[in-house]
Inverse folding.
């Protein structure tokens, strides 16, 4: 059984998850960069990250993630067109970190609306196709000799601005996750090994008690 204090912590973290704030990574192939992005997403309260890696296999997690990949879902797509279309179809605005004539200061975006931040490969940035499909382009003003930040650092800068706006709007004070998704994710966080057994058998998870205990029924047991 999960320790009651830990169960309460899991509930508290899930209650602040923001399902309508996400990141799309396009061919971010270095493991430490993807891991750092996921770690920042966990810290900010992002529920899921979307990744496209058309040039190679998805990179493995590095120690930079510090286990945060367990708490942030990773959705993968075969190409950037599908990734952007899926999010736009769910009423997300997709903003690409991309230096263009149309690009605006990242702080001018309203991140209290459903928002996806698109970040490109470490060396080349987002592809032109991704830039064209996006709803807008954002930049982080640079006052030094370099023109851009490391992709994981850029993600952190933008995401914490989004967090600032959402905190001010009280969006972390209410549960945003759908009830079924909340309960499903809570069970998977609290009992990952048991959850794997239920998924393998194609059975629904049992209900959890107030302190995180599993309430089994005759029709619902591993």
């Amino acid at each position: 059984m999960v320790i009651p204090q830990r169960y309460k912590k899991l509930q508290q973290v899930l209650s602040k998850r923001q399902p309508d704030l996400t990141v799309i990574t396009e061919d971010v192939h270095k493991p430490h960069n993807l891991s750092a992005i996921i770690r920042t997403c966990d810290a900010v309260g992002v529920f899921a990250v979307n990744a496209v890696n058309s040039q190679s296999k998805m990179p493995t997690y590095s120690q930079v993630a510090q286990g945060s990949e367990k708490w942030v879902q990773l959705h993968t797509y075969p190409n950037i067109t599908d990734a952007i279309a899926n999010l736009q179809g769910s009423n997300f605005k997709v903003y690409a970190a991309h230096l263009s004539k149309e690009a605006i200061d990242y702080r001018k975006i309203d991140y209290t609306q459903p928002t996806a931040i698109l970040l490109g490969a470490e060396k080349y940035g987002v592809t032109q196709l991704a830039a064209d499909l996006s709803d807008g382009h954002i930049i982080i003003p640079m006052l030094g000799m370099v023109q851009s930040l490391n992709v994981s650092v850029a993600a952190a800068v933008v995401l914490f601005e989004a967090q600032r706006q959402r905190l001010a709007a009280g969006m972390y004070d209410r549960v945003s996750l759908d009830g079924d998704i909340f309960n499903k994710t809570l069970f998977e966080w609290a009992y990952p090994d048991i959850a794997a057994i239920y998924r393998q058998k194609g059975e629904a998870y049992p209900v959890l008690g107030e302190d995180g205990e599993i309430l089994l029924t005759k029709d619902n047991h591993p």
Summary: The chain has a mean pLDDT of 90.
